[in-house]
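The authors assume throughout that readers already know how a fold can be written as discrete tokens. What matters is that the chain and its backbone geometry are given together, residue for residue. A single example would do more here than another paragraph of explanation. For illustration, here is how one protein appears when written out as sequence plus structure tokens.
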Amino acid sequence: MKFRSDDTTLSRRDLIRVSGAGVLAGTGLALAGAAASAQEPAGLVKVHRQGVETPFPLNAYLVEGEDGLVVVDAMLTNSASRNLRAKADGFGKPLRAVLLTHPHPDHYAGLGNLTEGLDIPIVSLAEVNDIARRDDADKDAVISGMFGEEWPTNRIFPNDTIGDGETLDFGPGLRFTVMDIGPAESFHDSIFVLEGPAPTAFVGDLVYSFMHPYMADNANPDWKRAISRLQSELPEDMILHVGHGLPATPAFLAWQEAYLDRFEAAILGADWDNPDAARAAVLEDMMAFLPSDELLFFLEQSILPNAKRLGMAE
């Protein structure tokens, strides 16, 4: 089976190379690629990745079934979410539903633009829905000043909720089962597994593909527990469609865990008698681990909350 990202068809082996043949940044440890010899069943499942680079790298997904579409996550800005809707309309198939993986605004803020004029289910775990609604006023106070007219004022929230293990069926090729992950990268995360001959899942921000992650929700111990669970439960050749970056496989979870460990060690090793110097030292250490500016501001926002959690700062 093959999976389609944007309008480029990627084979299963291509995607496994992305995650399995990479080198664990800063350690030289190669990520496992045990699934590279997996057979590709006949057929074509169309998963279209809608990626943007502005204001930062971010993905949403259009899953194309036989006679309809399902969109996973809804982008952050007016431009990106309206373009996502235009992309969906361009298929000439009805948009059946939108699925929300977690309650961060770069994934839910565009829901109003995406579903404008449509009466369709917007589905999430109840906890994801509750947290998005709870925190939206605080997010609005911060983000509206950052993005101005690009920040959607017509924000809406899920109108339907499901529980762990429940299955959603929106027609041929559009059958999803939800996994309740609980607190991890965000205050509550979930995974939507697309049923079919080959394993594939939409994991939100539980994995960042060689980008600095957002850790300011301060749940890294829970995130590491979630990683351990996923390493034991997900098929090794499952394709993980992520919120930021290229698709991966579960082998990449080892890199994500190593990043979280390195981040905590950097905080504990810094001299917090001088907080500015300590923050600079953490940034330097993490840039040595992952020498990239991609989502660096996520890392910058995450240092102080985690330093407080670890008892290193007030």
